[in-house]
Design brief:
Length: about 100
Amino acid sequence: MKIISKYPLLTDVKKIDEDTIVLEFRNNQGVKGDLFVLKIIGTGISKKIELIKEYHLNVETVIEDEDTELIFYVGNLNESPDWGDWGSFFSLPFDKYEGTFIDR
């Protein structure tokens, strides 16, 4: 299990093109500051934006890399999925992703 979301709160989802989306994570809601930006590339991945917004926008979200899929959970990074602390998950197939920290 490799967790790729570095901050807990998913605050924005943007479509770059049909095969690219960008997710923005912050440490806390309402706090301006550092961002963790996750760019995900995969065939037709932009079709999943509404699903991500509906279940994960402004919610603590954990994203896990499982080789060919990214698995999205609602949950706290400091808790464990083994204890049942993470819930409502779905997965997205992807080709690649890259994460960047942005200081504000």
